[in-house]
Amino acid sequence: MGHCDLSPKLRHCDATVTEWDDLVCYCECDQPPVILEAETLAMTIDEKVDKIVKELQVNPQNTSSTRRKKESAEDSRTSAQGIGFVGVAFMAIVFGGILLLDLNVFISGVSDIYKAFRRRGQSDC
Fold first, then answer.
1. What is 24-43 written as a DSSP string?
2. What is the CA radius of gyration of the chain?
3. Is-above-0.70 flag for pTM?
4. Among 18, 48, 50, 106, which residue has the least CB neighbours within 10 Å?
5. Phi first, then psi: what are they for 16, rounded to 5°?
């Protein structure tokens, strides 16, 4: 950046301005400096930091990443649907096989319980 004359001037830059208003310009600056409000200038650094943090704080429940975590994107491609069907079939075969292997134990247990109730019912009579 080059030399920057920060003295405020009128739009035509021919007289010095005594009030800060929308007619202020900085003729020799590449970028005009930020003009702060009087209440901001009177704040301590901690108050300014708190104000900035409060202004920049975002509610995490309103972010798109939070919404995307809870929603599945629809994929209508045939290959994606095919892989989904294969996955469901694989899980059904695995869990179904486990159930079939334990089916004889389940039936035997139910049969034993039934026989125990029948014997108890006959002995009560």
1. -B-TT-SSPPPPPPHHHHHS
2. 39
3. no
4. 18
5. -80, 140
- Residues 20-35 as b or e (16 or more Cβ within 10 Å = b): eeeeeebeeeeeeeee
Show the tokens assigned to 98.
């486990």
Token digits of residue 80: 């994606």
Alpha helices in the chain (DSSP H): 38-42, 45-56, 64-70, 78-124
Q: Report mean pLDDT in 10-residue bins for the chain, 125 residues.
A: 49 48 54 68 87 88 85 87 95 95 92 90 68
Is the separation of the CB atoms in 48 and 34 below 8 Å?
no
DSSP 8-state code for residue 16? B
Residues belonging to the chain: 125
Integer angstrom CA distances of residue 116 from 105, 110, 113, 124: 16, 10, 5, 12
